[in-house]
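Recall the central idea of this unit: under ordinary conditions, the amino acid sequence of a chain determines the structure it adopts. In this exercise we apply that idea directly, starting from the sequence alone.
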Amino acid sequence: MPWPQAVIVVILLAGLVPIGLSASGLAQIATNETAPSPTTSSVAKASTSPEANASPSTNSGTTPSPGASASPSPTSSPDSTGQATLPPTPRPTPVGTPAPPPPEPVSQAASASINPPPPLRGATPIPTPQPGLWRIEGYVVDENENPISNVCVRVGPPACGRYSLHTDDRGHYFLDVAQPLNGVTTMFDFYFEMPGRETVWWQFTPGGPIEFNVVLKKS
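Accordingly, the structure predicted from this sequence is:
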């Protein structure tokens, strides 16, 4: 090879060496930039673990509060949704000992002739007797024909009790009794008694509906 050509080849080779080194360096830099960083990889793994995803604030927001579920709402109380109302408690006879019954009973003929007081405004009408029953009713008044309330109408020997028959504010009382079965009749004893007044003993055998009025005099 002539000398000038050899010099040209050497010069060309000398220029290619830096270019190759530069290309190698750029490839190495590109490789380092695309490779994942250890810190980034560890962070990515931590973000996918269940422990890292379970945030305490998220759990506290989705867990129901025990206090809210333990206290029922007042509107769900059985008392506010129409619980059955208890029947009214009868008013008892005034405190005291009633007079003893007379030695002899009176009959239906002893019923007093009185003018029944008018019904009270707003009062519930008294229902009619059911079939097969006869109504025994009347009024109890004082000497001036004023109605007497809370008079105990005792039926039979038992003593007057809290749930015994009593007159209302108009002095009215009533009791429905069964009609005779197979011709067998029943005799009743009614005692009208109240402390401070004479007791009236009425004995009768019903043959149909009866009205018996009583004047309860002071003893």
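Residues 3-34 form the longest helix (32 residues).
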